[in-house]
UniProtKB/TrEMBL annotation, chain A:
It is found in: Cell membrane; Membrane. PROSITE patterns: ABC_TM1. Gene3D superfamilies: MetI-like. The lineage of its organism: Archaea, Methanobacteriati, Methanobacteriota, Stenosarchaea group, Halobacteria. GO terms for biological process: transmembrane transport. This is ABC transporter permease. Residues 111-300 form the ABC transmembrane type-1 domain. The chain crosses the membrane at residues 47-68, 110-134, 146-166, 228-250, 281-300. Its main location: membrane. Pfam families: BPD_transp_1. InterPro entries: MetI-like, MetI-like_sf. GO terms for cellular component: plasma membrane.
Length: 317, 335
């Protein structure tokens, strides 16, 4: 790069006489968030598998739903076993509905749910945690107390109480409801991370130079905690997924469309666990949930490597 | 134990319980289509004009612990004070005091979950330590992969699979219940039956819970093993035994405590699903049952009791943490 040439010629003499153009900045952003993570990704089979799974679910939930026709009753025989015919590769339920298609058409509501839930957790957790850690004093005390309370009140019973009184049907609203106290753990950890970043010399220097708090938070603090936030985004999506399926299984959440949770409930209530001939009815939705969960975990485990500056340094050239 | 630290923990516990009571009050009182409105409508439908307004209010007050004819703040204070005294109202459906119903089922849930937590942590910590000591070996790799896999399986999915094989296919374990009928409570056969019935629920929690603990124990131990004071201890010629227990294990276990606090809440919350699958009549079962039947006093009472159980569990965990971490003893901020 040409900048480096300049640096080497006049070391420590000039602060910077090269103006960064917009093109440079875009190239840097691409390098940090696309090119280098991509290079790391290729060398890490676990991360590759995780991303593959998550992207496959995204494609199924968007393109797959658009390409296929939904199944209906008596599309096939009663309880066709899996891997018998190409028409129903995963078999059918007792009403002759194709299980593979039911799972595919159950994907969009679940993805909407976990995405909105994960986003809610991360946004609330990040805002509360960083503000608490950076402000200190009374505001910190108040926010920390709220965080501790939210952390202690058990999530699932709280959600059940709210679900029974509010009876939400919109997937976005359900997702937010399921993340209702998931943000607290993130907020607590971020607060302590921000507290330690705050002690760093460069942040103190920025403060002394009179740079406003908001830009210190955005430019100096956020990049430090970003890998952790990304990690939490993925793992709270998994948490929302588990809670959603669990609550639909219990019959607490009202439903207006069929998806994996409703499928598991119907299969369980229909006695799928009691006989081997019906087991595939409950098995496939379960496998679907577990596979997505594994994908999310592998992606979350790799986020640290993908966005960690120290790992980056090794892959930049 | 440091006095100020203890006072802060106790104060926090009360804030959580108080918040929960406030939350249940506002849910009962202020939600559109709230339990009060529904109960009114139901009474009106059943008795029509023969029931006076005063009589309806008396019924609402008896069941929900709320006096609908008083101003809101009076209702609120009255509700909080009564709840703190242990008066949780009456069940719509069974007509029994909610507190009696709850006292009956709570010990079972506490029993189930404390056994599960103990096993989860013992197995997780031992496995994690072994993985750290053999870092990079085939054992470490396969144990890490296994731990990652079980973290991805929700405990209820594992419970389904256990039920399918052990109950319906092979008939080794009973389908549900807390103990076999016809046994004398307190007899040896009764205790054995209790353990027998608790096996599958505990196994499904332990099998899906140890992995996360093992993984973080592994990471903590590896980090501790690499630190300078361990090298120093080796150079000073301390025995391996002393190093692994006093230096590595203690420092690697301490960070697990935050996870334990979250785990207690998660398990008590999860008891709703777990007890439903195994028809195990604990607090979670009661809560779900009342939620599905819209028996609001029982549902709110169970929610409150589960929260209190979590608060007490977290408090106990905090006390043991204080004993392990010398910084608490001397008054430094532990966490």
């Amino acid at each position: 790069m040409s900048d480096r040439q300049v640096d080497e010629d006049i070391p420590l003499e000039v602060v910077s006489d090269v103006d960064r153009t917009r093109e440079d900045r875009i190239r840097d952003l691409l390098l940090t968030y696309v090119v280098v993570p991509g290079r790391i990704l290729i060398t890490d089979p676990r991360a590759l598998f995780g991303f593959g799974v998550v992207i496959a679910y995204l494609l199924i939930g968007t393109v797959g739903v658009w390409l296929l026709e939904p199944t209906e009753m008596w599309a096939g025989g009663r309880l066709v076993q899996p891997f018998q015919t190409l028409d129903h590769p995963l078999g059918t339920d007792p009403q002759g509905r194709d299980l593979l298609k039911m799972i595919i058409f159950g994907t969009p509501p679940i993805l909407t749910m976990i995405f909105s839930g994960g986003l809610f957790v991360v946004v609330v957790g990040t805002v509360v945690g960083t503000v608490a850690g950076f402000s200190g004093g009374r505001l910190d005390d108040v926010l920390s107390t709220i965080t501790d309370v939210a952390l202690t009140i058990p999530g699932l019973p709280l959600i059940i109480v709210l679900a029974v009184t509010l009876e939400p049907e919109n997937p976005v609203l359900i997702g937010v409801l399921l993340g209702i106290n998931g943000w607290a753990g993130l907020a607590r950890n971020l607060r302590s991370q921000v507290l330690s970043v705050r002690e760093e010399d460069y942040v103190e220097a920025a403060d002394a130079m009179g740079i406003p708090m908001r830009s210190i938070l955005l430019k100096d603090v956020m990049p430090n905690v970003m890998p952790y936030v990304m990690y939490n985004f993925m793992s709270s999506m998994r948490g929302v997924l588990f809670a959603a399926i669990g609550l639909y299984y219990l019959g607490v959440l009202p439903y207006n469309q069929d998806h994996w949770g409703v499928l598991i409930r119907q299969a369980y209530a229909g006695g799928a666990l009691t006989a081997g001939s019906m087991f595939h009815w409950i098995l496939w939705p379960i496998v679907t949930v577990v596979l997505l969960s594994i994908g999310l975990i592998l992606v979350s485990q790799s986020t640290d490597r993908l966005f960690n500056p120290r790992v980056h340094a090794r892959h930049e050239d | 134990m440091n006095g100020r630290w203890l006072a802060r923990r106790i104060g926090m516990a009360f804030v959580v319980i108080y918040t929960t009571i406030t939350l249940t009050f506002f849910l009962i009182r202020l939600m559109p289509g709230s339990p009060i409105d529904r109960m009114r409508a139901e009474l009106y439908q059943r008795y029509g004009a023969t029931m006076s307004e005063a009589e309806i209010n008396r019924q609402v007050r008896l069941y929900l612990n709320v006096k609908p004819d008083e101003p809101l703040h009076v209702q609120y204070f009255d509700y909080v004070i009564k709840t703190f005294q242990g008066d949780l109202g009456y069940s719509y459906i069974q007509g029994v005091e909610v507190s009696v119903l709850l006292a009956d089922v709570l010990p079972w849930t506490v029993f189930l979950l404390s056994v599960a937590i103990t096993f989860q942590y013992v197995i997780g910590i031992l496995l994690g330590a072994m993985m750290a000591y053999t870092e990079g070996s085939r054992f470490d790799l396969s144990a890490s992969a296994l731990s990652t896999f079980v973290v991805s399986v929700p405990f209820y999915v594992f419970a389904f699979i256990l039920v399918f094989f052990f109950v319906f296919q092979w008939g080794i374990f009973p389908q549900g219940g807390k103990f076999a009928a016809g046994l004398n409570p307190g007899s040896l056969a009764w205790y054995r039956s209790v353990l027998y019935h608790a096996t599958l629920p505990v196994v499904s929690l332990v099998a899906t819970g140890f992995g996360g603990i093992a993984l973080s124990m592994r990471a903590n131990s590896i980090q501790t093993l690499g630190s300078d004071y361990i090298r120093g201890a080796r150079l000073r010629g301390l025995s391996d035994h002393r190093i692994s227990y006093r230096y590595v294990a203690r420092n690697a276990i301490l960070p697990l405590y935050t996870g334990l606090l979250i785990q207690i809440g998660f398990l008590f919350g999860g008891s709703v699903i777990l007890e439903q699958i195994f028809s195990y009549r604990g607090v979670g079962y009661l809560m779900l049952d009342s939620a599905l039947r819209r028996d609001y006093p029982v549902m709110m009472g169970a929610f409150l009791v589960i929260t209190i159980a979590v608060v007490v569990g977290v408090f106990v965990a905090d006390l043991t943490y204080g004993r392990l971490d010398p910084r608490i003893e001397t008054g430094g901020e532990g966490r």
